[in-house]
């Protein structure tokens, strides 16, 4: 989710084999989301001292151990933009630490590599230690051991690039019908002058052959496409269902599935005001970047520049949660 990171969106799935939990990492810095069947959140574990984690380094095949706070610093560097204020980095650090501990409690990547974690963002979180700055180190140190919890369990640490002015629920943003956490409710946010134009207002056009190929690559093949329409929208007006009708059948996808198939660097969110198919061409236009669930990074940036604490920033997006220090 930074302009320096890949703009292409990973539409493949990273599998948490031990828990049957799947993650989509899409787009620009910071879009982390669960998909598939979700087991209950893991209970919080306290530690006498800072834990050490094992890490599989995809680039070299190396397996190494390092302090968890060092790992968190590399994740913040991999998931956020450069030259942001420390308070924004610190908010992201709380989420990254929370994600890491819950992920490890579910088995991490042990069934894949025999390690707790992996540097492959399809398997865990983005990790880029070469981009760790002094500001990131100070932010991680300032939140040392802090995680976000609800009712004694780690929260679902979702985040995305930009909300479009309002966050949403996993049901609306990700199509996860079984997830109904009380701390994941739509949060309205003020106008944000810091958001880049490409996130605030975007438009994409695809010809029928381009759309057919994109959908087929995602496993949706209905032949020549005759019609594509929005079948349902959610409470915040995000697209929740898209019906695709072709010469050899019809398929209904969740809004997020359709977005990822098209490419989250093109259809940046499901908060689309325009969705038209005609003349063998699809036109979609809207606002926002990412699935819209959990922390919105560009809105967190605005709060950080306004002087809000990292803890207050995170809890704005996860109301009713607690910050607990585990070591």
UniProtKB/TrEMBL annotation:
Residues 60-150 form the Sporulation stage II protein D amidase enhancer LytB N-terminal domain. Pfam families: SpoIID. InterPro entries: SpoIID/LytB, SpoIID/LytB_N. This is SpoIID/LytB domain-containing protein.
